[in-house]
């Protein structure tokens, strides 16, 4: 009821233990707090807060227009409803190293279990678009060092993302991955890897856990969990999958409603009221009321 019962520190400890286990952790991207509950109900390992989804929900392109206030506010709304660890897309960290430090602390306060900071220039763009640029390696290292230094909870996961593969090539991406690991990154997000061979190169280069981004309609071959596990990948995100599915279904519904003047034929494609109420745990609110209003000294 109202919120999850697992504390942020316990979620962070669980995420750390999961990373240490070597097993593949599956983090679908939540569209909103309600879908975060659905992700947990379906047995996934964590919830991802996608920058592309936060910006799209605000009808903004994913080009660095969201603010840390908007991202931290959404992350808090999502993290509070799930017992799973929440990993947040913090883009480039929202400014200089001191801004990155503030971003870490705001997301810790929001109850997140970790974040990722990327080495793109500001303004960033979606990692699967052409024309990306990356900052020099030392600037990116300073971002990671600032993030590691700023966290209050040592279990808060700082992931370093490199977009270098599509910009300066694999050799530079590997060099950066090593430098970010040396700067204290707990997890490496190798963005826009094209397929297994790319992951093999990065896996051989660093000892820290690796995150794979299985986002649709971009530069990456969509690899299944068995393949990702065989490649030694530790976390996989499906950042925009639920948003894309929801928008497609919504468009189908609007088309039918406009053409047929009723949604009757859509009912078997909808989440039933009883299922929504079960997901929202209506029952526990009734119990709460009974306890309070029937309370007698
Ligand atoms: C992972 C990502 O950073 C995100 O914001 O979710 C995006 C996802 C996408 O645009 O498909 C990305 O840059 O890969
Ligand atoms: Mg993003």
Walk me through the structure.
Its cofactor is Mg(2+). Catalyzes the thermodynamically favored C-C bond cleavage of (2R,3S)-2-methylisocitrate to yield pyruvate and succinate. Belongs to the isocitrate lyase/PEP mutase superfamily. Methylisocitrate lyase family. The protein is of the alpha/beta class. It has helices at 8-21, 33-41, 51-57, 68-79, 97-109, 137-150, 170-182, 196-205, 225-230, 241-260, 273-279, 282-293, and strands at residues 25-28, 47-49, 86-89, 114-118, 157-162, 187-190, 210-213, 235-238. The chain has 2 domains: 8-240, TIM Barrel (Alpha-Beta Barrel); 247-293, no CATH class. The protein has 12 helices and 8 strands. Strands 1-8-7-6-5-4-3-2 form an 8-stranded parallel beta sheet. Helix 6 (137-150) links the parallel strand 4 and strand 5. The protein is globular. The two termini are 25 Å apart. The mean pLDDT is 96. Bound molecules: alpha-methylisocitric acid (MIC) and magnesium ion. Alpha-methylisocitric acid binds at residues 50-52, 62, 89, 126-128, 213, 215, 218, 239-240.
Structure summary:
This protein is an alpha/beta fold. It has helices spanning 8-21, 33-41, 51-57, 68-79, 97-109, 137-150, 170-182, 196-205, 225-230, 241-260, 273-279, 282-293, and strands at 25-28, 47-49, 86-89, 114-118, 157-162, 187-190, 210-213, 235-238.
């Amino acid at each position: 009821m109202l919120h999850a019962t697992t504390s942020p520190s316990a979620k962070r400890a669980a995420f750390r233990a999961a990373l240490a286990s070597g097993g593949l952790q599956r983090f679908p991207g939540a569209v909103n707090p309600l879908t975060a509950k659905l992700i947990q109900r379906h047995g996934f390992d964590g919830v991802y807060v996608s920058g592309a989804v936060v910006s799209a929900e605000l009808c903004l392109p994913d080009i660095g227009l969201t603010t840390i206030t908007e991202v931290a506010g959404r992350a808090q709304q999502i993290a509070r409803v799930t017992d799973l660890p929440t990993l947040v897309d913090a883009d480039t960290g929202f400014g200089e190293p001191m801004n990155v430090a503030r971003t870490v602390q705001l997301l810790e306060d929001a109850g997140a279990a970790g974040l990722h900071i990327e080495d793109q220039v500001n303004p960033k763009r979606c990692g699967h678009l052409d024309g990306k640029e990356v900052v020099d390696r030392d600037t990116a290292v300073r971002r990671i060092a600032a993030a590691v230094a700023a966290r209050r909870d040592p279990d808060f996961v700082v992931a370093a993302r490199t977009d270098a593969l599509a910009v300066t090539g694999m050799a530079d991406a590997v060099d950066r991955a090593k430098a970010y690991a040396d700067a204290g990154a707990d997890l490496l997000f190798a963005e826009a890897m094209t397929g297994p061979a790319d992951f093999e190169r990065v896996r051989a280069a660093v000892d820290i856990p690796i995150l794979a981004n299985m986002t649709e309609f971009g530069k990456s071959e969509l690899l299944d969990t068995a393949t990702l596990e065989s490649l030694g990948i530790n976390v996989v995100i499906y950042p925009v999958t639920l948003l894309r599915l929801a928008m497609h279904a919504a468009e189908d519904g609007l088309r039918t409603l406009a053409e047929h003047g009723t949604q009757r034929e859509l009912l078997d494609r909808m989440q039933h009221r009883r299922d929504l109420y079960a997901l929202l745990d209506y029952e526990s609110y009734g119990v709460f009321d009974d306890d309070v209003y029937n309370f007698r000294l």
